[in-house]
Specification:
heterodimer; A: mainly alpha; ABC transporter involved in vitamin B12 uptake, BtuC; two-stranded antiparallel sheet; 2 strands; globular; B: mainly alpha; two-stranded antiparallel ribbon; 4 strands
Chain lengths: 333, 294
């Protein structure tokens, strides 16, 4: 049991845990213990986690306040959904292509919008992105005038439901690795520097515009990727799924997860979705009206009790790269 | 030409209502740097209380407006005490999330059947509507009422802020909490006062909005709230005249783009203008660029 063995087991811990989780869900699904409804909830939680990881890069690590994340999620959903509907017809290759296209469109939109707008600071940036979200929602509502297949304000149907648990889970694991590697790279360090103090970062020779734009584009591309999965998981894509409240959902997950902690983002995304669904079954039909009230009360109470997030910005040690372990280097805000 | 002037008058009416909401946003932001997302919902509560006041409770219209303002002032103070004060020294984003929670709470709580119920209600008018025309331009007495009430409230606010000790204390706290406290100002009570005043103004705006546009429901506050906040940012957030200027611009943009471009693209046009203005003047029209310190 030497040091080498310990490194190996630690490095293998996350892939092993992910595989075990995947098999457990498949077994539970096959035996019927996990019915179609809860499988849908689980997939929804993972899709939320992917998009929230994108916002985590933008806001949690790079400190750029965005209240319009749902717009990029929606751009990805519509792009991938349209491709899947028009050419894909359930073909896995087309599915992957459509996901990449959704991510690319969202990322490109983020670059075009972000280059001029990322000059704005904190709340002003938040309001500009909020405005962008509302503009995109209006465009989605009227998109059928240009592309009839989107259905405009009546919503889009007909995208093949290809994204099963395997696809969603696999993508989530890939994205977690991607984000982990990014935040521990040169980029990640520059982002944290910009978040902590933009002027100081600039003085240290960090090209702040470039790093902010890269964070924004990558984060929005992840939202687009999640949107593509969403469009291939649910049979119905509607502009109201990408409104301001959806952007708020992503923000809540990132803040409650603890800024600058991707483990926190993933855990909170899953926990938050399941909390809402459990609330639905606990309250029952008679108290369905109370669900929104309970949701709001839980949200306010949690943030007052844990203003720095549920996990307080900690990372799961098994997810840290080898050379970072034991150094207690903290990227949280 | 008369048609255009009538639309501009309509825009002025909407802009006045936005101004009453925007003032609360800008005052709260000025004093604790918080985007109070629940403010639009206070506007909604004000609309409901005012309308219930002059219909179900049978109060005279001015008294109903006063009651709505009082109820919302108390509501604003309670919200600040319970949801924002515990987070005053936490990261700013925590208070923002708390505000979102309060906003959702007000919306869903008011949707419950024993409160206001989830449906749209058509608002009966508190007085007979009469139209008159001056030089070919038709206006209604509703417009006159809105204008008179808003200008009176703006005057009162101006007096409060610049002619009273309370106003001086508010301006001091908005500059520097610690220095204000050292000067013997009770910062907590000044913040409470700010919430009370801002919420009362929003309530008055709510009643006027209900009377002018005749439909209310528990989610009424979302869009006017966002628009008014946009107006406050447009004018330069934290600056009182800026909020009024921004609101008047937003009112015109809303009405004119609905009338002459497309009602479906109205919201997109308003926010596009906001983004363009921010790109040219990153701190709003009347905002001053603050030097950055390391």
């Amino acid at each position: 049991m030497g040091a080498g063995w310990r490194v190996l087991t630690r490095r293998a811990l996350f892939p092993l845990a992910a595989t075990a989780l995947y098999l457990a869900v498949r077994v539970l699904a096959a035996t019927g213990l996990l019915n179609a409804y809860w499988r849908l909830v689980l997939d929804q939680a993972l899709i939320l986690a992917i998009a929230a990881l994108g916002l985590s890069l933008i806001y949690g690590f790079c400190g750029q306040f965005s209240l319009g994340h749902a717009a990029f999620y929606g751009l990805g959903a519509y792009t991938a959904g349209l491709i899947g509907k028009t050419w894909g017809h359930g073909d896995p290759l087309w599915f992957v292509l459509s996901l990449l296209a959704g991510a690319a469109v969202a990322g490109l939109a983020a670059v075009i919008f972000g280059l001029p707008v990322l000059r704005l600071r904190s709340d002003y940036l938040g309001i500009a992105t909020l405005g962008f979200g509302i503009i995109v929602k209006v465009l989605m509502d009227n998109s059928n005038k240009l592309i009839p297949a989107t259905g405009g304000a009546t919503g889009m149907t007909g995208t093949p439901a290809v994204a099963d648990f395997t696809w969603v889970f696999g993508t989530t694991v890939l994205v977690i690795y991607l984000v982990r590697n990014l935040v521990h790279s040169r980029y990640g360090r520059a982002w944290v520097a910009v978040r902590e103090d933009e002027v100081a970062a600039d003085a240290m020779g960090i090209d702040t515009t470039r790093y902010k734009t890269v964070a924004f584009a990558l984060g929005c591309a992840l939202a687009g990727l999640a949107g593509g999965l969403y469009a291939h998981r649910y049979p119905f894509v509607h502009p109201s799924s990408f409104d301001f409240l959806k952007s708020v959902d992503f923000l809540i997950v990132v803040v409650l997860g603890g800024l600058g902690s991707f483990t926190g983002t993933v855990v909170t995304a899953v926990a938050w979705v399941f909390l809402l669904e459990v609330l639905r079954s606990v309250l029952g039909q008679a108290f369905l009206d109370w669900r929104g009230v309970a949701y709001a009360l839980i949200l306010t109470t949690v943030i007052i009790l844990r203003p720095k997030g549920l996990l307080g910005g900690k990372e799961w040690a098994a997810l840290l790269p080898g050379e970072e372990r034991g150094r207690r280097r903290d990227l949280s805000a | 030409m008369a048609g255009v002037l009538e639309q501009i008058l309509n825009g002025l009416q909407l802009g006045f209502v936005y101004a009453l909401i925007a003032l609360g946003y800008t005052m709260v932001y000025g004093i604790i740097r918080l985007i109070n997302f629940a403010h639009g919902d206070i506007f909604m509560v004000g609309a409901f209380v005012g309308v219930l006041g002059y219909t179900v409770w049978g109060l005279p219209f001015p008294v109903a407006v006063g009651v709505a303002m009082l109820v919302c002032a108390v509501l604003g103070v309670i919200i600040e005490r319970l949801a924002y004060r515990p987070l005053r020294y936490a990261p700013r984003i925590a208070a923002l999330i708390s505000a979102i929670g309060v906003s959702l709470f007000l919306e869903y709580f008011c949707s419950l059947n024993f409160v206001f119920g989830p449906n749209y209600r058509v608002v009966p008018r508190p007085f007979e509507v009469t139209s008159f025309s001056v030089a070919g331009v038709t206006a209604s007495n509703i417009m006159v009422v809105v204008t008179v009430v808003v200008i009176a409230l703006l005057g009162a606010l101006q007096y409060l802020l610049f002619r009273t000790r309370t106003g001086k204390a508010m301006r001091a706290v908005s500059q520097d909490h610690d220095a204000a406290r050292l000067m013997g100002i009770n910062v907590d009570s000044v913040i409470s006062t700010t919430f009370a005043v801002g919420s009362a103004l929003a309530a008055a705006g709510g009643v006027l909005y209900a009377v002018a546009y005749r439909q209310i429901w528990p989610f009424l506050g979302i869009m006017p709230g966002l628009k008014a906040f946009t107006a406050a940012v447009l004018g330069g957030i934290g600056i009182v005249p800026g909020a009024v200027l921004g609101a008047l611009i937003m009112g015109q943009v809303d009405v004119l783009s609905a009338a002459y471009v497309s009602s479906q693209f109205r919201d997109a046009i308003g926010f596009s203008i906001l983004i363009l203005v921010l790109l040219v003047r990153p701190t709003g029209l009347l905002g001053s660029r603050q030097p950055e310190k390391v």
